[in-house]
Amino acid sequence: MNEKKLSALAVAVLAIGATPAAGEILHVEKSLYRNIVVYEDNGVRCMRFSRNATTRQTCISLTDDRYLVFNYMRTMMGALYVNPSPSRILIVGLGGGAIAGALQKMLPTAKIDAVEIDPAVVRVARTYFGFVPTQQTDIYEEDGRVFAKRMLKQGVKYDLVILDAFDHQYIPEHLLTREFLLEVRGLLTPRGVVTTNTYASTRLYDHESATYHSVFGNFYSLVTNNRVIIATVAGLPDTDELRRNAEAVEARLRAVGTGKDALLPLFKVESGWPASTRILTDQYSPSNLLNGT
Q1: Nearest to 42 by CA among 20, 59, 66, 19
Q2: 187-198, pLDDT tens digit by residue?
Q3: Beta carbons of 187 and 158 less than 8 angstroms apart
Q4: Predicted confidence band at 138 (pLDDT cuts at 50, 70, 90)?
Q5: Which of 92, 209, 215, 269 is deepest in the core (most CB within 10 A)?
Q6: What's the rounded mean pLDDT across residues 115-133?
Q7: Sign of CA dihedral 162, 167, 170, 175
Q8: Among 167, 194, 181, 171, CA closest to 290
Q9: Contact status, residue 233 vs residue 72, Cβ threshold 8 Å
């Protein structure tokens, strides 16, 4: 990158109030929804929306385009232990396209709908993260809940729904509520599964647990640096079924950097939140107040 261009990018980073991350800054942009910074460091290329240089929305490996850099993304693949062969998938929150790209390779015949509210993020995913939708993948530039409502009215069903929409702070409030999760439940096939990326340490934790339980009943929490929630319409599979499905998809998951030895021990049925925990609703979803640790 020439010195003049690097200088212009540095000015742009300061103009949007972001702290430059270590490594080479490739792109900065203030979109309608957020501040976007793309940079490279230690063999990975990352996107972030926050002023905090340690908070990253997407990273990809520059040496292995199959590997999922983020642990939570690898953990979300555990949804395939519940439904190992989804034929139609919905992804809410594209980011750099890492999850969508991995699923395109792992499940080349699956129909994928990926929804991203910010056209700038879609453009950055294509330009800087090498995301190329296949003929089986459609990208929708709109709010994920608006899309879900429309698909619900049209009677569209999904075998797998992946919820990974974040702004610079957390999941948008309207994508946390019981009403939204009921809409997602209505989109699932009888064997459908939803998997959600959440934080592992936040005052929202119990509220999220109570809300998911109110819609899906018992659900799995897979906790590492983040918490991944896995819930179903038909109830949770037993241990034997999980293990059989894990064997069936082992080769696919090895390609993205995980497998049964890492994932199976994480499957725990969530329990233990206080009975008085308030469910998140469209009238009560104060994630800005409860998101602190």
Answers
A1: 59
A2: 999 999 999 999
A3: yes
A4: very high
A5: 92
A6: 97
A7: negative
A8: 171
A9: no
Question: Which residues does 152 contact at the CB level (< 8 Å), separation at least 6?
Answer: 183, 186, 187
Which of 34, 78, 41, 79 has the alpha carbon at shortest distance from 60? 41
Spell out where the chain has E strands.
24-30, 35-41, 44-48, 58-61, 88-92, 111-115, 137-140, 158-163, 188-199, 220-223, 226-232, 268-269
Q: What is the pLDDT of residue 161?
A: 98
Q: What are the tokens at 180?
A: 């939204």
Place of tokens 């908070």: 55
CA atoms within 13 A on the CB side of 269: 10
Q: Domain boundaries in the chain?
A: 3-61, 71-290
Report how far residue 223's alpha carbon sits from residue 213's, in angstroms, rounded to the nearest whole number. 17
Q: For the segment 32-87, what is each residue's pLDDT rounded down to a tens digit?
A: 998 999 999 999 999 998 665 557 889 999 999 899 999 999 999 999 999 999 99
Domain covering 71-290 assigned CATH 3.40.50.150 in the classification: yes
Q: Using CA atoms, how far apart are residues 138 and 90, in angstroms rounded to an integer? A: 10
Q: Is the pLDDT of residue 130 over 90?
A: yes
**Residues with Cβ < 8 Å from 86, sequence gap 6 or more?**
80, 107, 110, 158, 159, 160, 193
87, β-bridge pairs: none
3-state secondary structure of 153: helix
C-alpha to C-alpha distance for 119 and 141, rounded to whole angstroms: 6
Q: What is the largest CA-CA distance in the chain?
A: 60
Looking at the DSSP bridge assignments, the partners of residue 137 are: 112
SS3 180: helix
Rg (CA), the chain: 19
What are the residue numbers of the active site?
A: 164
> Which residues lie closer than 8 Å to 218 by C-beta, 6 or more apart?
235, 236, 269, 270
